[in-house]
Write a structure and sequence with these properties.
By secondary structure, this protein is of the alpha+beta class. The chain has 4 domains: about 30 residues; about 270 residues, Beta-galactosidase, Chain A, domain 5, CATH 2.70.98; about 200 residues, Alpha-Beta Barrel (TIM Barrel), CATH 3.20.20.70; about 140 residues, Golgi alpha-mannosidase II (Immunoglobulin-like, Sandwich). Helices cover about 20% and strands about 30% of the residues. The chain is built from 13 helices and 36 strands. The strands form 6 sheets. Strands 6, 7, 8, 9, 12, 13, 15, 16, 20 and 21 form a 10-stranded antiparallel beta sheet that branches. It has an 8-stranded antiparallel beta sheet with strand order 1-2-3-4-11-18-17-14, with no helix packed on it. Strand 1 and strand 2 form a beta hairpin. Helix 8 packs parallel to helix 9. The longest helix is centred in the N-terminal third of the chain and has 28 residues. Calcium ion binds next to loops. Monomer. GO terms for molecular function: carbohydrate binding; hydrolase activity. Its cofactor is Ca(2+). This is Glycosyl hydrolase family 97. Keywords: Calcium, Hydrolase.
Amino acid sequence: MKYNLRRPAAFSLRTLATTLVLLSLLWTTARAEEIKSPNQQLVLTFALQSDGVPTYALTYKGRPVIKTSKLGLELKNAPALTSGFAVADAKQTTFDETWQPVWGETKSIRNHYNELTVNLQQAATSRTVVLHFRVFDDGLGFRYEFPLQPKLDYFVVKEEKSQFALAGDHKAFWLPGDYDTQEYSTVTSNLSEVRGKMKAATTPNASQTPFSPTGVQTPLMLKSKDGLYINIHEAALVDYSCMHLELDDKNFVLESHLTPDAAGNKGELQTPCVSPWRTIIVSDKAGDILQSKLVLNLNEPSKIKDTSWIKPVKYVGVWWEMITGKSTWSYTNQENIKLDALDYASVKPNGTHGANNANVKRYIDFAAKHGFDAVLVEGWNTGWEDWFGKHKDYVFDFVTPYPDFDVQELNRYALSKGVRIIMHHETSGSVRNYERHLDSAFQFMNKYGYTAVKTGYVGDIVPLGHHHYDQWVNNHYQYVLEKAAAHKIMVNGHEAVRPTGLARTYPNLIGNEAARGTEYESFGGNNADHTTILPFTRLIGGPMDYTPGIFQTKVSAYNPQNNSFVHTTLARQLALYVTMYSPLQMAADLPETYEKHLDAFQFIKDVAVDWDATEVLEAEPGDYITYARKAKGKSSWFVGSTNDENGRTSKISLSFLEPGKKYVATIYADAKDAHYEKNPQAYAIRKQTVTSKTKLSQYCAPGGGYAISIVEAGAK
Ligand code: NOJ
Ligand code: CA
């Protein structure tokens, strides 16, 4: 009886409890959260669908930027983290700080956002995922956090399923999605045209793995029909695979597509851990995209405490002469060189080796005479005869110079003239070999006084099967960066993963290539509009070692076999020092060529590489960009304007100058008849007094541009 009486009572309590849980589940399921940017113009809405699928949407000034888009991840051999979620908790916080970068486009950076943190519980699997949305005035960043928990410890990612549902068939500035290269020309087309243009866009490269007829890379720059500029990228790519975007070209929905590793896995993660931030920068002004600091702000503050040894670098180098084919990296033409089985002293030199003592001294003299900080020397070390297009595990050793490169004497000579030699480590993609030699290579650099290294990853990654942008190889770049920091070495990585603002955390990452650089002007050419796009795409993640300053635009002048030409005017080569932001800038042409154009070369000598302030005076992706930048700690300004294949007149106001002061402007412009194909070297230099009230009207030739240095009258 007792038993019978208690049973219904217990039952009804349980029923009540169940009903409460169900009710709360219903409530949480239906829950939507809204959060605005500090200036209220961006609105992020988070919502769970009835099946527990997390979604988000973003508007800017009431206009849709990202329509309702799903979030989640698919796992290998485990239930997906894509649905069946309930909101356990959601909270909003605000953050506002101003920080000083070690080097940069501005003296200080404001990091101001409102953050929505949503704690998601997947009841069926007892797993938790936390979503973080940071809404800035210039855009949105969101990431997944996987807290430490019993039911989610080590897991393998099959695919991340973050969607970016666009509001229409936007104009896109895109590169073919590829696990191994970014060295493509940008295609400008509507999203609906990507599929039809993919094949032609996928030009050959030493290592390439395109993955889909509608896969594209980030940073992806978009423009909507109603004039919204949207940029999609990622920030703080650490211990994770690099994200591409797969396009659904019927509905204009982009979805994350991660780079697989050698086993086909897209991430090997262990809680507690986080994904990189997925970033969406948006504005109705193109210039705001260029000014955005969102990607940097989403990275952690510097982990390097003493940054006094990190300094911007202006350099020349034994480089373009090899790129054009005038000289060689290799010391001998003997083939089949196996490093450990060869004594270089016994081989016949080819007589074309660029990094020989006399030539390197010539560059050092030139650098010292014209005030450059450093000379890059490529081809100084043994192994260049037999590195390309093979999958050798043991390639370079990074410490053995060729017989005609006296490492001790050349570094002594350089240092005696106040110049440093920049080390070069081409790894030939053999990551294992580089790690094998890394300690001794960096010790070698410390011993001889090298403070910067240019690394390179040409060719397929060894161990084979890995990709340039997979998690394991990204971890390698990170390992090199941190090891370099321990040795007080600055890093400029070529063919490495595209930057994602990590230079905030590791400011010794002073450069990256990770796009089609000036070298391609010698490999067939870059499009005339190339540098009107890169600041909107590749540079959103960080500075690029673009290596401008080519005055001899006909490559055949150095190598009669090479008919490539530089697709810009000479004046525009000067503009690039301002428009292609980098704390590491090369004057890439040969000393003998600069000696013939010392008047134009003066701009490269004068231009700053570190800045207190940056203004975008004019900008339209694919058409033109004009920047003004104030030199760090000085009153002088530099202006650069880059232009596509059509001539135009740029109209700018110098209102950025301090009112009441007089300045002398030296204007390096295209001559009237200049043309990037027909008459690239025609330039004209003039001087005029200017003030903050001055307005300038300047003609830019097809494929041209201009550069201006503005120095306070009477200042030095
Ligand atoms: C490709 C790099 O981008 C280039 O600058 C370098 O000279 C070659 N690899 C050789 O390492
Ligand atoms: Ca390259």
